[in-house]
Amino acid sequence: MRPLDVLQQSLHKRVLVEMKGGRSYRGVLDAFDQHLNLVLSSAEEVVKEVVTARPGLTLVRGDSIIYISP
Amino acid sequence: MRPLDVLQQSLHKRVLVEMKGGRSYRGVLDAFDQHLNLVLSSAEEVVKEVVTARPGLTLVRGDSIIYISP
Amino acid sequence: MRPLDVLQQSLHKRVLVEMKGGRSYRGVLDAFDQHLNLVLSSAEEVVKEVVTARPGLTLVRGDSIIYISP
Amino acid sequence: MRPLDVLQQSLHKRVLVEMKGGRSYRGVLDAFDQHLNLVLSSAEEVVKEVVTARPGLTLVRGDSIIYISP
Amino acid sequence: MRPLDVLQQSLHKRVLVEMKGGRSYRGVLDAFDQHLNLVLSSAEEVVKEVVTARPGLTLVRGDSIIYISP
Amino acid sequence: MRPLDVLQQSLHKRVLVEMKGGRSYRGVLDAFDQHLNLVLSSAEEVVKEVVTARPGLTLVRGDSIIYISP
Amino acid sequence: MRPLDVLQQSLHKRVLVEMKGGRSYRGVLDAFDQHLNLVLSSAEEVVKEVVTARPGLTLVRGDSIIYISP
Prior knowledge:
Seven copies of one chain form a homoheptamer.
Chain A (H helix, E strand, L loop, with lengths): L2 H8 L3 E6 L3 E10 L5 E10 L2 E11 L4 E5 L1
Antiparallel strand pairs in A: 1-2, 1-5, 2-3, 3-4
């Protein structure tokens, strides 16, 4: 198994994405590429415990990501 | 679907672009490339809740972008 | 021996992963690639001495990693 | 249209270049390359609201640029 | 002589590895690659004058390294 | 004209090199490469308004450079 | 002349190496590569005006270097 295979298994499931700078997202993983750029749908963004809904498809840039977990 | 396909779907529509350093843009996505360099038209820039209009075409460098959402 | 051979030997064993920004993980190493992207299972995250369980498979991005040890 | 086409359209026109670290330039765009390295003529530099004239041709390194607008 | 030849000469000898962020390691250099990823055995980690033993093989990511000396 | 052509025109002339971190150099540009690594002769370094002469040839690493101007 | 030619001329001579983060080295340049990784012998490290001798061969990673001068 390679790390990106884990993302393949998480497709269309909810994931937690922790970002540099204290930001995180929860949303359904709709797409990813080898740079770990992600597309999330039905996402919520959390910054300093403030939750903001992000309707539609959000493209998150891979180089700001620290980890992705279910 | 690949992450850049989401940008293709957002072409000529308004997007929110969150940048590193507390800066964000709202504008119409007129172009993008594989580095996530973007061209926005009719853009507004928001820095610390101060909104500045950016008339004309603004080229935003991809490596400062955290996420792009509708 | 090459550095990645050490990761090969640690597969399916518990490792400590120290990250930039004062974050660390303990978990079972289930996968890795040449960028040091890792997959951990049964992981615990430690930030400022607060421990959070991360059930399921966690994908940790290699470029935030400082070191990996048993 | 690709993002660099916007720079092609801005050649020999005045642009605003916002840099990381709170620095910005206004000047005539005389050249650019694919790294967004720029050459500005008749440039003014603004740092913390202090304006300094930069006569001659100024080469601005692309990786410090956040955005370029008319 | 090329810089990596120095690492070749230090193989299986104790080295001091100074890291970004005020962290350093002392340990036996067991492996390295062209990115300066290192494997140390019998390592001690020093952060703010606190020494922690790191038994087993520690993989240190090259891009956090400032210098390596005997 | 390409951005590096401007450096070609500045060869053997005095330039101002503004660096990240509040450091700048004035000196004669004796060489450069495509990474914007520069060689300056008869250089003066300015850090927080303190000027230090740098006799001989100084090699400045391109990735710390913000801009180069006459 | 190319920038790395200056390093060739400095081989086996004492150089000053200024690093990011307020660290500098003085030592004899024994080797270098195209990434500006350097090997210094008989080196002294200076951090906040505290001088530490670094006997033996010190490998300094190029990406932390700001400039190298005689």
